[in-house]
Each structure stands twice: as structure tokens, then as C-alpha cells.
Amino acid sequence: TEEDRSDYYLPEEPKTPDPVVKRAKEAEGLLLQRSVRESASSNNPFVLTPHRPNYFLPITFNPHPDERAFLGDKADDESLDKVEFKYQLSFKFPVAYNIVGKNTSLWVAYTQQSYWQAYNGAISAPFRDTNYEPEVFIVTQPELSFLSMKPSFISYGFDHQSNGQSDTLSRSWNRLYVDLTFENGDTAYSIKPWYRIPESNAGDDNPNIEKYFGYGEFRVFHAIDDYTIDMMLRNNLRASDNKGAIEVGFTFPLWGKSRGYIQYFNGYGQSLLGYNQSSQTLGIGIMLTNWL
Predict the structure, then answer these.
(1) Phi, psi of 123 (to 5 degrees)
(2) What is the model's pTM?
(3) Active-site pick, 41, 160, 170, 222
(4) Counting C-beta atoms within 10 Å of the first and last residue's C-beta, which end of the chain has fewer, N or C?
């Protein structure tokens, strides 16, 4: 019967609520809700805890790809497609708890962002650039306020970013950073200043990178029912030769845990290889995990 088929296809409703879901719903604030879920999954050896968003944008339109940076002298005979496949994978895992006092934890994270010329069969569909970003950081839940506001969490750590290339295509830099995250209702935002660890002139693959990436970034995340909007801002804070970047994302429900994702970027430093070239891209695809 139709009733029998319904019972066959629909899973049985659990008799008791999932304690993790229950605690997350009871937690006040988006950041604390994520913290509860991370605590439940971080000790599971079969689960990778998301760090930054994980997404796939199979249609990413870049009207002016930086052909000279990737192709070099071959740019006169070959060309890059204006549509490519961009994706980001990011996860983290805890190393120790109460490392420098109560409510502190030490984490190791890894983020990879790739730009794949997947539809460019004329040059064998290469990866135009891939950025590898391992980092180690300590997360604290502070008791003190900052500028009359109390951060929900403060993270401070070391960040290395490189593209794994050699010679003229090589890009890499190291940073120390502090990340202060705040929240107000369905809105969360972070202020993340950083300091680049100096390199010798001979070993610097990307001189004056701070001029293009700036000295930190500001992020804001806002949830509206089952939709979310996020924005990132960077600026070098220079009166003359001012440079920066803006990235705006919008997610919407699709099916199951997957969500549609639209991402717009305009400015400098989208990827390391072309850090000193302004770019404007628009991508659409699927987000697996969000900021919160």
C-alpha cells in the first residue's frame, strides 16, 4: 500500500533527540553552536572537522585571466579559458586542550584553494594555480572585553601559504596573526590583523605582497532563515596607491546538506600567482560546509 511504501522509504524518527543537536540548539549564538558541533566531532577519528568553507565552483567566470603570469612566453601562442573550475578544501584537528589555561585549545589546519582550467583541452586542462595553506593556532574564550566589546573567541597563530611552484612561478609567505571573532544575533564578524615574517630580498618570491594583500582582513557573516551572506574586505590602508579586495558570497538550500553557492571577487590577491594583478570573478556551484 501507499502507507507501506512511505514507511519503507522514510527512516524511523529517533525516539530520543541527538544530544549534540540538542546542545547546539540550546547554545546562544552562531559561534557557540559551531563550537559545540566541533567538540562532538573533533575526537571522532572518522570525521574531518571543517575549518574554512568547503566548496566547488565548476563555473567560475574570469573575464581577464592573468595569462602572462602562468603561461610566460607561451602566452603569445596559447591562451587561458575565461571559465574555469575553482574549489576550496579546508579542515582542522585539535592537538591539545587547556594548552595555555582553561578554555584554550591548540589546533592544526590545512586549506587548499585551486584554480583549474578544466575545460581548456587545448593546453591539457592544467591547474592554473593551487594555494596550499597549513597553519597552527591557539583558540581562547576570553573573559576581557575589546574596545567595549567582548569577543566570543580569539585565535592567534602561524600561517604559511605557498603555491608549490619553482623559479618564476614560485610564491610563498609566512604570517603571524590574531583573529578576533564577535557575534550579535544572526550576525558574526571577525577582525584578523597579521604580520608578515620578513624574508631576505634574494629569497622573497613575492616582494611587497603586503601592498596588495594588506595587513589584515575583515569578515562578516549573516544568516537569514536558511540563507546566508558573507563578505570579506581587505585593504592596504595607504592613502596613495590604495589597493584591496572584496569577496561576497551567498548560499541557498539545495538538497540534503548541500547548498548552492554564488561567489563574487574583485581586487588583488585572489590567488598567490597573480597577487599583484587585479581580478574580477563570479562563480556558482555547491558549498559543503560554511563558516558557521
Answers:
(1) -120, 30
(2) 0.86
(3) 160
(4) N
